[in-house]
Each structure stands twice: as structure tokens, then as C-alpha cells.
From TrEMBL:
InterPro entries with a match to the protein in the record: Aminoglycoside_PTrfase (IPR002575), Kinase-like_dom_sf (IPR011009), Pseudomonas-type_ThrB (IPR050249)
Molecular function per GO: homoserine kinase activity
Record carries keyword Metal-binding: no
Membership in a protein family: Belongs to the pseudomonas-type ThrB family.
GO biological process, one term: threonine biosynthetic process
Domain of life: Bacteria
Protein name: Ser/Thr protein kinase RdoA (MazF antagonist)
Domain Aminoglycoside phosphotransferase: residue ranges: 53-286
Kinase keyword on record: yes
Entry keywords, A to Z: Kinase, Transferase
């Protein structure tokens, strides 16, 4: 009766059948890890969002702001962090506006931490002020910054990306994940198999004429901020290079119009998209970026391939995000959506780009 009550250990509470697929780490744990491995006194830490990776906002002693990224176990394979951080250091050294990483106290680009689902990487990046592009001159500034990024990356010679943005990376993996989708209607799967085969044939035919660059890979307008400089001009700074890799200029350019077609849908008029695109392309060219007729003609192809890449990220993470991220009825509709995008007209003849962004 009077014996001491036994305190249960965490192992006593853990069901042996429990298999974790993803841990959302508490902000205080991330703050402690940053303090331990980076030697920074963290005053504030908060989860920004869970997505392809988990990102946390930090403020350290002295007021400096950072973003800590806890890399998620992605179905594509190992972390690409060695390439990403080396590329950022190279671009920063060339004067390109990027959110470069911060080395650990031991001089490493990142640390590896054990989570219940497996080992994950943690890296720390500088915070970027400003906001996502909204005004037309901000889309022009984004295009200019992307052109400078592509030019500066030409002589990058560091660790290679593990994930080139080729046909397999954009669509091949997606098809494999669709085939593993539980209970997917055979007709829907057959439609995707036919579509992906046709798009990859089109890519193979166009490939010899297309411009190759080291792509940012995720230039959808929400991975860069625009800030005003001391002279009142606007400049763009890019961040989140986890999907960077060697690929095609038409892909890196096409991600922005895809983003607004996908995110805004009917809420965005065609004229609004065309205005943004015209300024974006004109800004790219104003900074010395060369876009050929073949690159422009391939934009509808790459907008569809981008959509398949994005769709694949959802169907490849059913264990983490669930089927609601890409339900079967939505998957069925995307075949028609991509068929409509084949007719997109993003030719610069809609505006005069010779004199810079239209006014």
C-alpha cells in the first residue's frame, strides 16, 4: 500500500509496432542544436513551416536573424546539402544575391542529427529581408537576379548535385511513385504513362537545341525576396537551393509562370500572367541572359514537366502527407490541365523587350 509509485520510462510507453515517418521537432530543440553546434546564443526560435523540409526562424544575440533548415527524408534519396551549401558559397563569392549558409563552430556546412525516423541534416542560413515579388518591376528584378545567378554558376566546380533536372528527375520518378499509389485507377495510371512517354519523347527531340544551365530548380516567385537598395532600386535575393542542379534554362524560367498558373488558377487573368512574364523575361535579358527561340518554344513542355515534378513530390510522400495531398480525383483532372498548358503562348512578341521591361 505504501510503496513508491513506479515512474514509466519512455520505452514503456512506446508501442513496438510504432513506425515513425516524420518528426516535427520542437523549436526549442532546434534552438538548442543551433546553440550547441554553431556556438550562437539563440534568443528566439519558431517553426516557419513544414514542407519539403522543415524551416525555423531564429534570432540570435546581437539581433542577427537566420533560418535553420531541418532536412526531411525525401523519397528521391540522400540529402543534397553538400552541393547546395558549396554552390551558395560560390555564388556569394561571385557577388550574386543569395542566402548563403553559416558554417558550424567546427567549420562544417551542416550537422547530422538522429530523429526517430532516421538521421536528418541541419543547416543554418542567413535570413533574407524583403518580400516576394509582387509589382511588375519586382518581377523584372527577379529575372535580372536569375540571369546573374546562371552566369555566375558557369564555373562552379564544387561537389556535384545528386539530382540533375533531367527527364528522370522531372517525370520518371513521378511515374514510379504513381505506380505505387494505393488503389489508383488503372485508366488514370495509363493516362499518366502515355503523357509522360510523350513529354519525354518531346524533350529528347528538343534537347540538342536547348540551353543548359545550373538551375536554381524552384524559382516559383516564393523562393526569393526583393529588397530596395540604397539608391532606391530593387534587387532580388534567392534562397532555398535544395532542388538545384544541372538542367535546362527553359525549366528554370518556366517555373515562375507555372507557379501562377497552378497557385492562382482562374483568379489570375491571362493578361496579369503575361505582364509578369514579360517583365521577368525582359529583366533576365537586360542582365545579359540569352534566351533562344528554342528555349521559348519549349516553355509549355517544361511547365508540364514542372507540374509532374511537383505532383511527384506529393505522391512520393503519401507516408508523410497522406493521400489528401494528391487525391485520385485531383490526379485525374491534372491530365486535362496539362493538355491545356500545351497551348500556352509565352512568346516575347507580346511586348517590346529590346528596351527593357515594358512600362
Amino acid at each position: 500500500m505504501g510503496g513508491r509509485k513506479r515512474t514509466m520510462a519512455p520505452s514503456d510507453l512506446c508501442d513496438p509496432e510504432l513506425v515513425p515517418t516524420h518528426t516535427t521537432v520542437a523549436a526549442r530543440s532546434v534552438a538548442a542544436w543551433v546553440q550547441r553546434h554553431y556556438g550562437l546564443a539563440v534568443e528566439h526560435c519558431a517553426l516557419i513551416r513544414r514542407g519539403l523540409n522543415d524551416n525555423y526562424a531564429l534570432r540570435v544575440a546581437g539581433g542577427a536573424r537566420h533560418v535553420a533548415r531541418l532536412y526531411t527524408l525525401r523519397p528521391r534519396g540522400p540529402f543534397n546539402v553538400e552541393f547546395e551549401t558549396a554552390l551558395l558559397a560560390h555564388l556569394q563569392g561571385r557577388g550574386v544575391g543569395v542566402a548563403a549558409s553559416v558554417d558550424t563552430a567546427a567549420g562544417s556546412s551542416h550537422v547530422r542529427l538522429q530523429c526517430p525516423e532516421g538521421e536528418r541534416a541541419l543547416a543554418l542560413f542567413h535570413h533574407v529581408d524583403g518580400a516576394v515579388p509582387d509589382a511588375l518591376d519586382e518581377f523584372a528584378a527577379t529575372g535580372e537576379a536569375l540571369a546573374r545567378l546562371h552566369a555566375a554558376a558557369r564555373d562552379y566546380a564544387g561537389p556535384p548535385s545528386l539530382y540533375p533536372l533531367d527527364g528522370h528527375g522531372m517525370a520518371g520518378r513521378t511515374l514510379a511513385w504513381l505506380r505505387a499509389y494505393p488503389g489508383l485507377d488503372a485508366r488514370v495510371l495509363a493516362s499518366y504513362e502515355s503523357l509522360i512517354d510523350a513529354l519525354l519523347d518531346e524533350l529528347a527531340a528538343a534537347e540538342p537545341m536547348l540551353t543548359r544551365v545550373l538551375c536554381h530548380g524552384d524559382t516559383h516567385g516564393f523562393n526569393n525576396h526583393v529588397v530596395a537598395d540604397d539608391a532606391g532600386g530593387k534587387r532580388a535575393v534567392f534562397f532555398d537551393f535544395d532542388d538545384a542542379g544541372p538542367g535546362f534554362l527553359a525549366y528554370d524560367l518556366g517555373v515562375m509562370p507555372w507557379s501562377y498558373l497552378f497557385r492562382k488558377g482562374l483568379r489570375e487573368t491571362e493578361d496579369t500572367l503575361q505582364e509578369r512574364w514579360a517583365h521577368y523575361l525582359a529583366g533576365y535579358r537586360a542582365a545579359g541572359g540569352v534566351v533562344t527561340d528554342a528555349d521559348l518554344a519549349a516553355l509549355p513542355l517544361f511547365i508540364q514537366l514542372r507540374h509532374l515534378w511537383n505532383l511527384g513530390e506529393a505522391v512520393g510522400r503519401l507516408h508523410h502527407w497522406g493521400t489528401s495531398a494528391a487525391p485520385e480525383d485531383w490526379l485525374r483532372k491534372q491530365i486535362e490541365v496539362m493538355a491545356a498548358w500545351q497551348k500556352l503562348d509565352l512568346h516575347p512578341a507580346r511586348t517590346d523587350t529590346a528596351a527593357g521591361p515594358p512600362v
